[in-house]
């Protein structure tokens, strides 16, 4: 039995070896596996966070892209609408112009027709008048008429001719 | 009627060192193989089996209770080392865990009626020698052999003997503090059993009735609290002395 307070070379030697064994054992059985799993978990978490970040960024860029597309589509539709309106306006203007031109042509035609009709009527009237004059002259030849009647007839004739003119 | 010797309590007071199981002669030096070493193996076996049990089938998700305990222990040691020494000393964590667990369990086996591993001064001398080597190695690593030797002349060369003394006093005081607390507790416990047995005999009882219960209360302090405190103090001092041996962390 050793003394109560003693320094023993053998005990020191064995304690050194035992401490080393426990150190290596704890390192191997406790620290290495736990550190490995902690690191693995940290990596998993980091990766998940990174994935979330990249997914977020992608969603953001997609959102921007879609917004751009919607804006472009709106612009396009507005452009289309403007074009259509302009075209319709042009078409309407054309139609109105054509209609006006047509109407003017019709009016012109009518006026010419009227003129022709008038001339024809005049011509007819003149013929009628001359034949009437001849008739009247024949009547006058047949019968004795006083000079007053004669003069009146001639005046009336002239008037009528003037009127006809 | 005479009771068997086992039930008569301690009728004599003996305070002794560890039993020698075997002795060898190696190059003229007598190497003793003592009780302490066998108890160390017992403690190591318990610790390593516990570690093996706790770290069985580790997973990332769905952590089991065992794994949670293992992670908690490792985390606690890492935090202790990081807080006391700084992040760059994290490689010390397994060694601190070794000394801490070895010391606690080595002290607590006295609760099983075994002799505390830490009531053998040789054990504490070994551990504090390791600490001393680490302190010196750290000084040499950061300031070189010259810087380490020059450190003994600080602040004036006259201080040389005092510096050497303080350098040596560090491990000696660490070893003696730990040994004294645990061994002293063992002595007081032995005295208490002896005294309580004597008291029982004094009032005419052959069976030492007072030794039931009363020593347990004191055992709470001398075995549980003291064992835990001394392990903690030893580890804290080791960490503080080693990290103080290095220059400030801002250099790295």
Series of secondary-structure elements of chain B, N-terminal to C-terminal: EEHHHHHH
Q: Count helical runs of chain B.
A: 6
Structural class based on helices, strands and sheet pairing of chain A: mainly alpha
Oligomer: heterodimer
Q: Average pLDDT value of chain A?
A: 88
Q: Can you count the beta strands of chain A?
A: 0
- What is the rounded Rg of chain A? 64 Å
**Helix/strand order of chain A, N-terminal first:** HH
The share of residues in helices of chain B is: 55-70%
Low-confidence stretches of chain B: none
Total strand segments of chain B: 2
Query: Helical amount among residues of chain A, as a percent range?
Result: over 70%
Measured distance between first and last alpha carbons of chain A = 174 Å
Average pLDDT of chain B works out at 86
- Indicate how many domains the architecture of chain A comprises: 1
Shape of chain A: rod-shaped
Radius of gyration of chain B: 23 Å
Domain tally of chain B: 1
Low-confidence stretches of chain A: none
Placed side by side, the strands forming the largest sheet of chain B appear as 1-2
What do you see in this structure?
The complex is a heterodimer of chains A (165) and B (252). Chain A is an all-alpha fold. Chain A has helices spanning 9-142, 147-164. Chain A starts with 8 loop residues before the first helix and ends with a helix. The termini of chain B are far apart. Chain B has 252 residues and is mainly alpha-helical. In chain B, strands 1-2 form a two-stranded antiparallel sheet. Chain A binds chain B through residues 1-16, 18-19, 21-23, 25-27, 29-31, 33-38, 40-41, 44, and chain B through 15-20, 23-24, 29-34, 36-37, 40-41, 44, 47-48, 51-52, 54-55, 58-60, 67, 70-71, 73-74, 93-95, 97-99, 101-102, 120-123, 125-127, 129-130, 179, 183.
